[in-house]
Every structure is written in C-alpha cells, then in structure tokens.
Amino acid sequence: MLTYRTGAAGASAAARFMSEHLLQQTLSPEMAAMAEYYEQGVTPPTLADAAASRYGRFMASGAPLAADTLDGLVRVEAERLAESGAATATGADNGRGEPILRALAAFAAAGLVGREETLACLARLSGAGPTSDAGVEGADDSERRFDAAMAEAVSTPDRSSATAAPRRDMNPMLARRLGIEPQRGLKPDEMACLLNGQRADGGAIEGRVQRASSRPLAQIFDLDAARVPTPEQLARMLAGRKANGETLPAEEAERAVRRLLSGLGVKDKTLTTEQRGHILAGRDAEGREVSARQYRTILEAAKMRIGYIDMTFSAPKSLSIAWAFAPTKAEQAMLHQAHRDAIDNVMTTVEREIGRASIGDAAKRGYEAGSIGWVSFDHYAARPTVEIVREDEQGQPVTELYTLTGTQGRAPGDMQMHTHVAVFNLVETPSGRVGSINLA
C-alpha cells in the first residue's frame, strides 16, 4: 500500500520535527545492527555525529550553557536513547544512569561540552561522578565508564535512529546540488534542512528559482476570517488596503487583490462596474450569494512552497509477520529485499510521472524529463501516533505526528514493515535545467 503527504518548505521547526519522526528507530539495537546489511553500504553517523547534529544549534554562540539548560538537553537525549532501546551497547537498560552516561558521552565526544562540565552534569543527574559522595574509588570508576562510553560514541553507529539512506543511483549533479553523499547516511540536521527546501548544509540550492509562499488573505488584510467582510471593508480591500484602511506594500497589495478577485470568480484582469457592485453587496462576480463558509475558505487559503513528498510504502501484513518470525537472517534478508525491489520498481514509475521540469512560465512550452532525488527510511513496526495541528513560526498551520507514549515509554505497535521515501521538490534535467517536481 502506498500513502503520501506533502511537507512545506520554509517551516524549519516543522522540518526538524519531521526529520526526527522519520529517524525514529523501530528495532531493538541487535536487529538494527542486522538491518545495516539492508542499507547496502550506506554508513550511518556515529553517536557523536548524531548528537552534534541534533544539539549543535544550542551551542552555536560559543558561550557555555547554563547548568539547567544542559541538564534539560541531556535528559531529552537520554529519554530518546532509553525509548529506542539503545540505552546500552547491548540494548539492556540497567537504570536511569546508563542513558544519562551515554547521552553525556555523545555530547562530550562531539565537542559540545567540556570534560569537567560533562562530569559535573553526570553527578547532578545520576549521582555518579567526581563530585558525588561515592569516594575516590567510585569517582575513578565513573570516569573509566565515562571514557569507555566516549570511545564508543566516536566509533559506534547510531542505532538509536533509523538510517537515512540516500537514493543509491542518484544523479551525481543532483546529489552535488543537494549536498548529499549517496554512500553516507544523513544526520538529523542535514535531513531537516533538506525537508525545509535547502541543501543538506543549510545553504540555498544552486540554480533553483525560489518562489515565495503566500499568506492567507485574512492575515494580509488584517480581518477575522470567521466574519463576512462589510461593504466598507471590501471596498478598502479592492483598493489594495487593509480592512482598517492601512496601506499595504504595492506589490503585496496587487497580488492580494488578484487572489481575492479570483476567489470571487473574476476571470479577467479588469474588474467591471457590475462585478464590483456584486462584490460590495456580498456576492460573487456573477451575482451569486457568498456564504460565510465560502468567504472563510477564500480568506484562509494560503499557498505554501512544497519542500518534499513523504511517500510511505507498507508491505502486506503477511510479509511483515513472515519477516518478524523468519527462522534465519537469510530468510529475513530475502523478504526485506522483495519489499525494497517493489519500492524501486514503483519509484521508477514515480520518477517518470513527476520528474519533469516545466519549460516557460506555467509550462507553456512543455516539460523536460529529468531525475529526482530521495532519502529512504526503513521501519519495521507500526507506531501509534496522533496528529496535532499547530501554527509554525510563520503563522501557517502545520500537522505534526506525535508517537503515543505511556508510563513504560513508547506505546508498542505490531510488526509492520514499511519504508518512508522523502522525495525532494527538485528535478535535474540532462540539459542542466533545475525545476520543481510536477504534481499537476
């Protein structure tokens, strides 16, 4: 089964959230290690790399973090490690102190905090460390365990996250444009940048025409979308002003008036006297009554730039069960390969359908076929989730997926082999043209 959803570009908080959702591990550490075989040579980041990627932005100023801020970040990472089952190298959780130790070791190995600061934090959060009451011998033991955890953080793959595997045969020019190395698994911040419509390093994509998102008309004209505009407000809006009479920038006013007229059925660039009379009377351009609900739809509509498509390929339940209970790793690998082969076949068709860059404004001169890029995430169990709609930093509504948790951590789900394929809104053609994927 294939389902999909689009994600907006330019909403960095939503992109970070989606990146973490896609990277959430659904396997035990032992099975995650085995699953690396399926990625066919893609190298996942180390624990230290992943920590730097997730939390580096909090240390960007170079100033030391306040103790309570550092403690909060470490708790977040420790809870994530414990929830994924990766609290220890073997996946066994021998108490709250072990996730704290591993989280702090990753922070220190990534250069996010200094050694003394790290050991002080360890003492505060777990009661172990040189400042605790355990004595010299106990403190030495804590430091030895910490050093071992640091060595592991710089050498061990991050199995607390799913591997973000780039398309293996990605067009080299497209990979360069996106800042992707096809043989290296992407880190959380790189994935968030790509979902946000940027290069993996956060830069602008070379050659791409960046189209602006449009705010809802209710925001532009500064009125309540739940109320039908009065004739006085409509007259001001048609004149390119806010509902209260304040002026708007000329270019924004022109676009907003054009959108309002289009929503009310005006097809020509020029508004006739008759059409103006209809609109001021609360009707559309043809004289038909416009309900409060129709006005709300017009005033709340916004056009967001698409950053990516999340395509989710779910294997039949019978295959998922067969994979979970296969008696040998070889049989599991064969079943998984059948799932991946099916995805590859479908993505060939998807590329043919949407991998077309338009030629001319609104594709007036047709399309040129090209290559698309994607990153895939293999998941092996269902995650009970709930959708929450909130406003992003630009005031636009975004939908976030929250995995349900309980007193024992993440709510358990049954076996369900599925793969998320995040397709980026970019097409690279043989002639060097760069365009957006064709979703018409």
Uncertain segments are 88-95
How many domains make up the coordinates? 3
Q: Please count the beta strands (DSSP E, at least 2 residues each).
A: 13
Mean pLDDT: 83
Query: Span from first to last CA?
Result: 22 Å
What percent strand?
5-15%
Bulk shape: globular
The number of distinct helices, counting runs of at least 4 residues, comes to 16
Strand pairing plus helix content: what structural class?
alpha+beta
Order of helices and strands: EHHHHHHHEHHHHHHHEHHEEEEEEEEEE
Radius of gyration: 26 Å
**Helix share of residues?**
40-55%
Write up what this structure looks like.
With 440 residues, the protein is α+β, with helices and mostly antiparallel strands. The protein folds into 3 domains: 1-44 and 161-210 and 304-440, no CATH class; 46-157, no CATH class; 217-300, no CATH class. Helices cover 42% and strands 15% of the residues. It contains 16 helices and 13 strands. The protein has helices at 12-23, 29-35, 47-55, 67-84, 97-109, 115-126, 135-155, 172-178, 188-195, 217-221, 231-238, 250-263, 273-280, 292-300, 317-324, 329-354; strands spanning 2-8, 165-166, 306-314, 356-358, 367-369, 374-381, 385-391, 397-403, 405-406, 409-410, 415-424, 427-428, 434-435. A 5-stranded antiparallel sheet has the order 1-3-11-6-2, sandwiched between helices. A two-stranded antiparallel sheet has the order 4-5. A two-stranded antiparallel sheet has the order 7-8. β12 and β13 form a beta hairpin. α1 crosses α9 (188-195) and α4 crosses α5. The protein is globular and about 85 Å long. The two termini are 22 Å apart. Mean pLDDT is 83; it is low at 88-95.
